[in-house]
Every structure is written in C-alpha cells, then in structure tokens.
C-alpha cells in the first residue's frame, strides 16, 4: 500500500492539474468542461492548508468569470489580465506554497 501524499506533494499535483487545464483552455469564453476539470482538481486537494485553499478559491472565482458565457470583457485587455492572474500570479503562489511546505519537511 502506497504511503499517503504529503501536503506539499498534493499541492504540487494540484498546480500541475490546474496548469494543464488553463494551458489547454486559453480563450475567455463559455467553457463548462474547463470549470469541471478545475473543480475536480480542487476537490482532490482536500482541506488542511488554509493558504492554498484561499488562493484556490480566488483562482476559481476568476475562472468562473473567464469561462463564463457572459460577455464580461468589454474593455481591451481585460481577459488577458484575468488569464495572467490565474495562470501566473495565483498558480505561482500555489506552487510556492508547495515548495515552502516541502522545505519545512511536511
């Protein structure tokens, strides 16, 4: 029987899954499948790390808008800024948390 994953490993796996979904779905448009995949990744994380959970909630909120059927992007560059927030800022923060926990021997 395999040992359960450490929190840092679960968070790193989550980040990889999110990255794969975001990279495969780069257009701001109705995309319920991308949202479903992101929710599935989030569900696998489980609880236990408040920082990662908070960043994940923020990322999911932005994904709800980005992959919505509504036209939220009336201003030039709005969808690109939202994408950058999800793909770079929030995802990087989640990865950083994984590295911090690993360095602390979680």
Query: Count of DSSP helices?
Result: 4
- Distance N terminus to C terminus? 20 Å
Measured by DSSP, the beta-strand proportion falls in under 5%
Name the average pLDDT.
89
Q: How many structural domains?
A: 1
Number of strands: 0
Query: In percent, how helical is the residue content?
Result: over 70%
Q: What are the low-pLDDT stretches, counting only 5+ consecutive residues below 50?
A: none
* SSE string: HHHH
Q: What's the Cα radius of gyration?
A: 14 Å
**Structural class designation:** mainly alpha
Q: Major beta sheet, specifics?
A: none
Shape field: elongated
> What is the subunit arrangement here?
single chain
Lay out the secondary structure.
Layout: H1 7-24, H2 32-45, H3 50-66, H4 78-103
Helix pairs in contact: 1-2, 1-4, 2-3, 3-4
């Amino acid at each position: 029987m395999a040992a359960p994953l450490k929190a840092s490993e679960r968070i790193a796996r989550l980040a990889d899954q999110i990255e794969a979904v975001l990279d495969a779905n780069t257009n701001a448009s109705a995309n319920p499948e991308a949202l479903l995949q992101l929710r599935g990744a989030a569900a696998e994380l489980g609880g236990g790390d408040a920082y990662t959970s908070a960043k994940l909630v923020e990322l999911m909120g932005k994904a709800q808008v980005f992959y919505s059927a509504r036209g939220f992007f009336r201003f030039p560059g709005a969808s690109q800024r939202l994408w950058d927030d999800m793909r770079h800022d929030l995802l990087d923060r989640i990865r950083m948390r994984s590295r911090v926990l690993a360095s602390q021997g979680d």
